[in-house]
From TrEMBL:
<dbReference type="InterPro" id="IPR023370">
    <property type="entry name" value="TrmO-like_N"/>
</dbReference>
<dbReference type="Pfam" id="PF01980">
    <property type="entry name" value="TrmO_N"/>
</dbReference>
<keyword id="KW-0949">S-adenosyl-L-methionine</keyword>
<keyword id="KW-0808">Transferase</keyword>
<keyword id="KW-0489">Methyltransferase</keyword>
<dbReference type="GO" id="GO:0032259">
    <property type="term" value="P:methylation"/>
</dbReference>
<dbReference type="Pfam" id="PF18389">
    <property type="entry name" value="TrmO_C"/>
</dbReference>
<comment type="similarity">
    <text>Belongs to the tRNA methyltransferase O family.</text>
</comment>
<dbReference type="GO" id="GO:0008168">
    <property type="term" value="F:methyltransferase activity"/>
</dbReference>
<dbReference type="InterPro" id="IPR041369">
    <property type="entry name" value="TrmO_C"/>
</dbReference>
<feature type="domain" description="TsaA-like">
    <location>
        <begin position="5"/>
        <end position="142"/>
    </location>
</feature>
<protein>
    <submittedName>
        <fullName>tRNA-Thr(GGU) m(6)t(6)A37 methyltransferase TsaA</fullName>
    </submittedName>
</protein>
<dbReference type="InterPro" id="IPR036413">
    <property type="entry name" value="YaeB-like_sf"/>
</dbReference>
<dbReference type="InterPro" id="IPR036414">
    <property type="entry name" value="YaeB_N_sf"/>
</dbReference>
<dbReference type="InterPro" id="IPR040372">
    <property type="entry name" value="YaeB-like"/>
</dbReference>
<dbReference type="InterPro" id="IPR023368">
    <property type="entry name" value="UPF0066_cons_site"/>
</dbReference>
Length: 232
């Protein structure tokens, strides 16, 4: 038996590439985006009452990771990328139906649009449903997860003088907390866990419409080298 679903909207996100997106929501509070709803879900009465809610669950599609053949076992980055476990024990993007979920902060509501923060969603992500976060039911104080019990360890993020000035200039232009966004994302060390990068190797990603470049002068330290406007 099969079912069909259709998006209720699409996310306009600060994350233009998959690389460096936090692996869970809420790890980068400065990560912002807008969920733009499509008809008929963009009508005001569809959102009535949501102004009383601080956080929402988004059910969405990993639209750039959909696969014809399901994976039964995956290699979670949290386990170093070299240990396989069952797909249902993880939140890996390689899902049987490509469905993900994230709890995000609802900053404000406009007609047909939800402004969100703390997101971990790629630009253009199709959203299938919105559900309000219910603290008494959703926050389970005695819950445990032996595979991912604690938040990931953070690494130090440093700036060159020029890259910091560039980030501050671009942040003023965008009206976004770009410096905080870069620091929050990079502190989680986006490189594959099995890599030991040489100091001369550069990494990069695109946030909003800027390109961010960095390297690892030491294995546990990042230095941001450049923050420049992306080519159109």
């Amino acid at each position: 038996m099969s079912y069909s679903v259709s998006p209720i909207g699409f996310v306009h996100s600060c994350f233009k590439e998959k690389f460096a997106i936090p692996r869970q929501p809420q790890l980068a509070p400065a990560a912002r985006g807008v969920l733009e709803l499509v008809a008929p879900f963009d009508q005001p009465h569809a959102l009535e009452g949501l102004e009383q809610v601080s956080h929402v669950w988004l059910l969405f599609l990993f639209h750039q990771a959909l696969e014809a053949e399901p994976r039964l076992r995956v290699r979670p980055p949290r386990l170093g990328g070299n240990r396989m476990v069952g797909v249902f024990a993880t939140r890996a993007t390689h899902r049987p139906n490509g469905i993900g979920q994230s709890v995000v902060k609802l900053d404000r509501i406009e007609p047909g649009r939800l402004h969100l923060s703390g997101i971990d969603l790629l630009d253009g992500t199709p959203v299938l449903d919105i559900k309000p976060y219910v603290p008494y039911a959703d926050a389970i104080t005695d819950a445990h997860n032996g595979l991912a019990e604690d938040a990931p360890n953070l690494i130090a993020v440093h700036w060159t003088e020029s890259s910091l000035q560039q980030a501050q200039s671009e942040a003023a232009r965008l009206g976004e907390p770009l410096q905080a966004l870069i620091e929050q994302c990079l502190a989680q060390d986006p490189r594959p866990a099995y890599q030991t990068p040489a100091p001369e190797r550069r990494y990069g990603t695109r946030l909003w419409d800027v390109e961010v470049r960095w390297h690892y002068p030491k294995p546990s330290t990042i230095t941001v080298l450049e923050v420049t406007r992306a080519a159109s």
